[in-house]
Amino acid sequence: MSPINLSKWARLKSPWVLHFNSGACNACDIEVVALLTPRYDVERFGILLKGTPRHADILIATGPVTRQAALRLKRIYELMPEPKFVMAVGACASSGAPFKKCYNVLGGIDKVIPVDVYVPGCPPKPEAIIYGVTKLFEKIKGGS
Amino acid sequence: MNPNIFFRILVFPGFLFLFVLILFCDWFERKIMARMQNRMGPSYTGPFGILQPLADYIKLLTKEDIIPHHARQFLFSLTPIISFSIFMLSIFCFPLDGINVFSNYGFEGDLLFVLALVTFAHFFLFLSGWSSSNPYSGIGAVRILMQFIGYDIPLIISAIGPAFLAGSLSLAKIASMQTIPFALLTPWTFILFLVALQAELEEDPFDVPHAETEIVAGYGTEFSGRKLAFIRLAKDTQIVFGAVLTATLFLGGPYGPVFSAPPSLWFTIYFVLKVLFVIALLEFVEAICARLRIDHVVRGNWRMITPAALLSVILTVLSAPYIRLFMGAPI
Ligand code: SF4
Fold first, then answer.
1. pLDDT digits (tens, 9 = 90+) for B65-85
2. Ordered structural domains, chain A, with CATH
3. Which among A10, A43, A57 has CB closest to B58?
4. How many Å lie between the centroid of ligand 1 and the Cα of residue A64?
5. Distance from C-alpha of B152 to C-alpha of B154, rounded to nearest angstrom
6. Chain segment B214-247, per-residue pLDDT in tens
7. Model ipTM?
8. Residue of chain B nearest A8, judged by CA positions
9. Domain residues of chain B, as ranges?
């Protein structure tokens, strides 16, 4: 295995995620936390939930990004070490859905930081989030 | 100098062997934890997920390495490596395959030497948190120091028990004396030692220094990339060190019946099995316990564990003649 393949293999096998709520209604967050429960248990794939952005590879962001959270979201993204990826989980995070055009939201994670994978659903099922992670893996494998 | 010694230090039973053992123990812990919680644990990275810790380390080594602007650069970059190497050096002093890595039986008093080294390593862990100039790391670092200062005392006191029974402060001698493991002869010391060790290793119910729900990741909050890899490696080495110390003091170390030549092969097998047994014990306790509050941790130490450790030493000293008679050793 060449060094590049080796590092790619390691990256695919141990994605550590950070969960950030930028004004979600909390349903998406419960679905994200459900990933860690015995039923779905994403530690099987080496996915661990981390508390600090310094340790994380993937930022799982939920919510429509309120004006207050926008700056924090950007800051947390900047705290993460490269290479970093962002998943927008939920209809809110993708486009602002039910909260679109509210005076206090920006409407979507991608208004603030670049997003790699969108997971639609209100809230998305844990299976859908896992599917989103596999889509992200394909993107990493593709050598972006 | 003996050319063999380089092989012993670098490959077997030195650096490479211990490194593989440490990675394996990391996987073993996670698997036990997961099974206790009715989960599967790492399963798809290599056979049974056994390569999971390796993948984690390689990934961390290839990631960006950030030094925060306010951190004390020199200490911040150095402390993870130093604490890892001190833990490694202290494992080197144990009789791993009958003799220690430097191919001798150690010296009289290397038990104290090892315990002192580990206190140093803990201090470097404290410094690593302190130097990162982050409020969470600072709180985590202060908590480590407080916990280690407190629990080092009962740990060392209960380590005296086996040394007293063996009549020696040398690790190899203590280990080889145990035709019957001291864990069976003096279970009171063994249990206290395990409790104090659990606190030293910052495992539940004593994991206040890196309590995720309160202070993010404790002293490791600001570390990323290579430095985080070394911090994690230091933590894993610390757990293996704890298991090796327990196995040597209370379970007879690497020694056991030899069925065929070479004895060092059998000794290594016994050693690994005993280390895994101790780790399984520690992880079992971790899985069934919830985190104590910080004041309970401190008060529990000074009010209960330390006096109990002193009492257990008194009990050991009083019963020593009978135990030695039982072991068939000269009184
Ligand atoms: S997508 Fe739906 S469930 Fe998720 S945070 Fe928005 S409103 Fe709530």
1. 888 887 778 888 888 888 888
2. 3-135 (3.40.50.12280)
3. A10
4. 8
5. 6
6. 777 777 788 888 888 888 888 889 899 989 888 8
7. 0.83
8. B59
9. 3-326
